Amino acid sequence: MPSLSRLDPIRDPSGVALKRTSNSRVFPALLLANIGQLLTLQPPSAKTGPRRGSDLKELSIVKNGAVLCVAGKIASVGTASEAFRDPWIRKNKRKITEIDCGGKVVLPGFVDSHTHPVFTGPRLVDFEKRIEGVNYEEIAAAGGGIRSSVEPVRKASCNELASHILSALQNMAAQGTTTVEAKSGYGLTVESELKSLKAIREAAACWPGTVIPTLLAAHAIPEEFRGRSQEYVEIVCKEMIPQVTRGKLAQFVDVFCDKVAFSLHETEQIFAAATNSGLAVRAHVGQLSETALEPLLQFQPASFDHVDHVSEDDIARLAKHDTVAAVVPGANYFLGLGEYPNARCLIDRGVAIALATDYNPGTSPTLSMPMAMSLACTQMKMSPAEAIAAGTINGAWALRLADRKGSIEPGKDADLNLFAVDDYREIPYWFGTNRCTMAIASGSIVCRD
Ligand code: NIG
Ligand code: FE
């Protein structure tokens, strides 16, 4: 494939060539000082694994804090007075770029562990139909839903898709997201799924944040395989997964396991093929109807996402596993559902919860983690602290990146956000407006207000 920067610049639909995020700057040493509330998310106890129960609300806040980042990593974290006494900082003052955070809030960059950014445009007919009262299953049965995004993705060039993805990544960073899981899933042929993953890779190469690609070929049964889903599953297992593995195009394989999509048995087949190829797995479960989770747990999925419908027994099982339950309230909001996942019950019973946007054109066209946090608070009764931990450290666990992401600790990637608020609870409070004034990914300023 030609090198993107040399031969084949990504063009946005208006024809303008897109370069590496234009206002991103890498600093060898960066000191964020005068931080009113520094949410470090350092672990409250010696327990390892994703946050559960009452640990989820522990943000480990330093008042009047400072963070030193060197060569893209967090070098030290503490109070401002400690930072200014630090001999290394005193000696290297000239080499350090200092950012005065104005007494505002700094926290880890958000980790959005569930997005579908490889599509070309909105689905406005579905939007209107739903407002008129037609539901998700009826829209899908009439040829709308996921399938209606497939034709445009099949027709689009890799560059066109990459341009849409890059624009989404830039918008995400503007709202504080520095790590994104990105799924394919609107191609549904070998060629178009591979093209979608290549587009994710090309967009990711132009963005300073971290992108984790996922093969979601089992998103919907393609029209041409209607009534022959097993044949499509064979293609996913025997052609797509091996090719994706060979090309190192994805880290995870996802399946939409629900009554309108793939059966439990088909999901097990796909999970087995992924595991045999050395890819980790995750699944959309229990969005429309209850999915039995026990048979899937043997594959040690990184996450089960949606979990609107989950049995008592499976809640007890999840509480004993490191598989994270990722709730995506943007989908419930946008589908106009009165009900949301019972996050309160999941947390109180010890299940590890992450929070994600589920950015996609059908059920959740938002790329804002603060919006997801606001919905988590108002609709699922999560506290602001729980919502923030679910969108940072537990998002990192859901992507198996907790050794690098999700908290502000020495040695981790320098992924940080500055929010123009005095108190972290304002992040989910001011819904619909963006208070993120700076996002930093691996020590590089991705966007600045
Ligand atoms: O997570 N549930 C399956 N996938 C998406 C919907 C995608 C679409 O409608 O385009 C979801 O909600
Ligand atoms: Fe999804």
Word description of this protein:
Strands 3, 4, 5, 6, 7, 8, 17, 18 and 19 form a nine-stranded mixed beta sheet that branches. An eight-stranded parallel beta sheet has the order 9-10-11-12-13-14-15-16. 33% of the residues lie in helices and 22% in strands. Strand 13 (280-285), helix 10 (294-297) and strand 14 (303-306) form a beta-alpha-beta unit. With 449 residues, it is α/β, with parallel strands linked by helices. It has two domains: 25-109 and 408-448, Urease, subunit C, domain 1 (Roll); 110-398, Alpha-Beta Barrel (TIM Barrel), CATH 3.20.20. 54% of the residues are buried. The model is unreliable at 1-22 (pLDDT under 50). Helix 6 packs across helix 7 (190-205), helix 7 runs parallel beside helix 8 and helix 8 runs parallel beside helix 9 (264-276). The longest helix has 18 residues, at 229-246. The structure holds N-(iminomethyl)-L-glutamic acid and fe (iii) ion. Residues 114, 116, 284, 358, 360 line the site of fe (iii) ion (FE).
Helix content: 25-40%
* Low-pLDDT sequence parts: 1-22
CATH class of the largest domain: Alpha Beta
CATH topology of the largest domain, by name, is TIM Barrel
Content of β-strand: 15-25%
Output the number of helix runs.
17
Q: What is the oligomer described by this structure?
A: single chain
List ligands, each type once. Answer: N-(iminomethyl)-L-glutamic acid, fe (iii) ion
Using only C-alpha atoms, the radius of gyration works out to: 21 Å
Structural class: alpha/beta
